[in-house]
Amino acid sequence: MSGGLEGYLDAFIAFIRAERGLAGKTVDAYAADLTAYFEDLRARGVLDPARVKQEDVTAHLMQLGAKGLSKRSQARHLAAVRGFHRFLIAEKHAEKDPTEDLDTPRAARKLPSFLTLEEVEQLLAAPDERHPTGMRDKAMLELLYATGLRVSELCSLGINDVQLGAGYLIAKGKGSKERIVPVGSIASEKVQAYLGGPRQHLLGKRQSRSLFITPRGGAFTRQGFWKLLKRYALKAGIRKPISPHKLRHSFATHLVERGADLRAVQAMLGHADLATTQIYTHVNSARLRAVYDEHHPRSETAAPPRPKRRKPGA
Fold first, then answer.
1. pLDDT computed for residue 293 by the predictor
2. Core-binding (CB) domain spans which residues (predicted)?
3. Burial bucket for residue 280 (CB in 10 Å: 0-12, 13-18, 19+)
4. Structure confidence at residue 14 (pLDDT)
């Protein structure tokens, strides 16, 4: 193949555009990443990509890290480089893949943010249940915290999806996958109270299959619930950033803290992979460490013991 490194690059870009059907922005990102890669190869005196060794790729990744690129960006670069070398092998332009034994750089996973039990209690107490909208909002908040649903799943619930007598609901998750989620007694009570009159009051003479509806009779939206949640958080005196997903994190964290089986939590959350749920064990470990550091007498950060008061005249 003629044209040096750029000739190989042109052939690879044509391949991923035509054969793999990648989006234009993705193709442009691959081209930019590989152009930077080729510049590093030239600096190392490597002009034939078939002669690239694993240490050349490793040096490139180290160079990216030295420039301040995040682990996520480094992983994207490596994906482009790996795809390029596999293309060379498939097209018989090279015999070995120098990226074969390289691990993808992994960014440190950020621990999910959640509410304390006290903050949850304050939030759930915020709606005014003397009004139909307040009873609806109370039912939504209680149900979201009781089940750990995604806000989209909460808003898409239909009347027939909630089986309060049996103590469960049917959530429609990602990919239209359905799962059965248990509902606690308090949440069941609040949803039942909402269904006992306030919902029909909001509907008037209209009909709807949606469980939670607006005063206009339409199904509640994610955006609408987001605004509602922020309003109640402000009323409850919660100053930290809040989102519907934070209630989902709080649900899972509080369960794991109390010894819930991780597989059960995974099933309730609708996670396809247990590794996604395991992040909550790290949250629990982090909290335990904070408690230890604060209170254990042998911890460097523990507060020193208070000196005993001497009795007068002693």
1. 63
2. 3-89
3. buried
4. 86
What would the DSSP string read from start to end of 252-280? HHHHHHTT--HHHHHHHHT-SSHHHHTHH
Q: Is 174 among the catalytic positions?
A: yes
Task: Compute φ and ψ for 123, nearest 5 degrees.
Answer: -65, -45
Which CATH number is 117-295's, of 1.10.443.10, 1.20.120.330, 1.10.150.530, 2.40.170.20? 1.10.443.10
Active-site residue (options: 174, 177, 209, 282): 174
Q: 303 — phi, psi (to 5°)? A: -70, 140
CA distance 245 to 238: 16
Active site residue 292: no
What pLDDT is recorded for position 175? 73
Domain 5-91 in this protein, CATH class: mainly alpha
77, 85, 248, 249: which is the annotated catalytic residue? 248
Query: Closest by alpha carbon to 78, among 223, 69, 247, 292?
Result: 69
Task: Please classify residue 278 by burial: count the beta carbons closer than 10 Å to its beta carbon, then call 0-12 exposed, 13-18 middle and 19+ buried.
Answer: middle
pLDDT along the chain (314 residues), means of 10: 69 81 80 90 87 89 84 84 90 88 68 86 96 96 95 94 93 86 94 95 91 89 92 94 91 88 89 81 62 56 50 49
Residue of 245, 263, 289, 295 marked catalytic: 245
Q: Is 280 an active-site residue?
A: yes
Cβ-based burial of 141 (10 A; exposed 0-12, middle 13-18, buried ≥19): buried
Out of 150, 190, 199, 249, pick the active-site residue: 150
Active site residue 310: no
Q: DSSP for 177-197, please give it.
A: -EEEEE--HHHHHHHHHHHTT
